[in-house]
Amino acid sequence: MKLKLFLLFVIICTNSWLQSTTWHIKQDGSGDFITIQEGIDASVDADTVLVYPGRYYENINYNGQNITVASLELITGDESYIGNTIIDGNQQGTCVCFDSEENGAILRGFSITNGIGDIMYGEINRLGGGILVFTHFQSLTINVYIINSRIYENRAVLGGGIFVDESNVTFSGVSIYNNYACSGGGISVVEESNITFDPSNLCNLYNNFAGLALDISVSDAINDIYVIVDTFSVQDQFEYFAFYQHSYTSSGNITINSQNHYIERINSDFYISTTGDDCNSGLTPEEPIRSIALALQKIESDSLNPKTVFVESGIYSYELNNQILPLAGKSFVNIIGENMETTIINNDLTAYTFMMVNKVQNSLRNFTLVSEEQCLEASIYILESNNIEIENLKVENSNIYLSGSVYFYRCFNVVIDNLIVQNNVSDGGSGFWFDGGNAIIRNSVFNNNDSNGLHPFVSNFYFKSNDYLELENCVFSNSNIEPTTEEFPTISIGAQQDCEPIIKLSNCLFSNNSTIKSYIAIITSSGSREINNCTFSENTSSFATLRIHSEVDFRNNIMYNNNVDYEILTGNITATGL
Asked: What pTM, to 2 d.p., does this model score?
């Protein structure tokens, strides 16, 4: 019986092979087609699209076909075909896309480069610069195999080299390097996905860049992720290069098993200049390197002897001097510019300028951050990081998608001195957004940050505290919220759930702000509140200048020439104004 079943299986497989077609792709016109996509479109399951050497400027999509697309490496075993058979995304989108329930599709023997990712259903960011495997909203999980290929010099917001969503991907003999993203410079894996690395035909994963997880980021995968490779970026302290973002439903880990490493970390300060050379050591002002991201990649994170990246005055951008953004903050590493007015980072590349996630003891000082062309998620994005110092920093002239030019989430022991956030615009909060934690903010200006009011809780300044917020010598001015059906204040201060923080405002100016259907400033938290020596003037609101829930210590304040129904509302919303 077993012999009969085996023979039946062989007959079925042989019949399938005999009925399959091999489509030849040659750019000189001597094959079946001259483009890879034409070959895919002509194929049915089990066919092979055999691609001859050349540089193919395409953004191919398997369109649900369970086929093999391969270079001549497939039939010859000659690895030189990998290097001279290139799928070039031409900065038009993802180089290779699987998004239609492919099951057993194979990509083999290519160089994949110059992709910038695709914007998929309901997303706002580009995903998967080189390769995109995306199952979202579909009933079946995608299963694909990527074999004997090189994925390099691609970029996206998530997954510079590869983005995997609700899919299974097997890598065999694949090298992923020199890609960059906001998260997962090499690979980003999300939403119940699983990736497998061939333990025999080893892969390489190294020298990628990102604001979070330079080589691989994982969130809500099905299983623990085991990265079994010949070469990884580093030999230890993997968390800067490989990061698992845990949620309420996931608790997985990433394990790195590598035989070699690419980077030798250096326990020294680094020096950066626009005229530097990345072939220099970067260890002295006389021999600076050019790339800030490269310095952060190489510098040692040493809790006993914190280090500094010193950045010389100049304009730093992708166009001018090939800066890779976002910069990835590192624990126990300070990033200090020469002068706030003359050390400028212009984000002309991606969704964030500076990112820091799950880090400690880091300072960012003496920079101006702008984004005159790129629409940002945030200029500064700091998540679940503690003991952070921001000093002499200007964030201006940016178009922000939703929540804040400067964004903090669940950060504690934050000290901010001389932060200027001005001339930003957003669908949501264009100014400062701090959701959970505590901070002391001194000598700072939040000016001319406007919103069209499409996003809930919109504010020029939004803060939800766990235990304390101190604002001293700060200015909140010239911010406008366009009329909508919702009620949005320009300044909103509240508490995290079940928290009663201490809120102190002293020597602050609130001037020339406007919102039609809400308050200029609102403080909703329970707990101790003090407002002393502050001035509220020239503000416009159809409700009140200041809305305070329950009691407040209110001393030596000036309220002058505000165009409002009430200067102060206290207690519940129907209370009499003062």
From this structure: 0.91
State CA 351 to chain mean position distance. Answer: 7
What tokens appear for 415 in the block? 């000290």
Residue 152 dihedral angles phi and psi, to the nearest 5° = -150, 155
When pLDDT is averaged across residues 259-288 and rounded to a whole number, the result is 98
Instruction: Annotate 126-158 with three-state secondary structure.
Output: CECCCEEEECCCCCCCEEEEEECCEEECCECCE
- What pLDDT does residue 455 have? 63
* Rounded CA separation 541/545 (Å): 7
Identify the pLDDT of residue 18.
52
**Fold exhibited by the domain 19-261:** Pectate Lyase C-like (2.160.20)
Question: Any idea what the Cα angle at residue 258 is, between residues 255 and 259, rounded to 5°?
Answer: 155
Mean pLDDT across the stretch 367-383? 88
pLDDT of residue 372: 73
**pLDDT, tens digit, for every residue of 442-482?**
999 999 988 776 665 667 899 999 999 999 999 999 998 87
Distance CA 49, CA 67 (A): 8
- 229, 195 in Cβ contact below 8 A? no
* Torsion of Cα atoms, 310 then 313 then 317 then 319, to 10°: -130
- Domain ranges in the chain are 19-261, 402-578
Whole-angstrom distance, CA of residue 156 vs CA of residue 350: 8
Q: What is the gyration radius of the CA atoms in the chain, in angstroms?
A: 27
Tens-place pLDDT, residues 56-65: 999 999 999 9
CB 454 within 8 A of CB 427: yes
Dist. CA 148–CA 402, nearest whole Å: 41
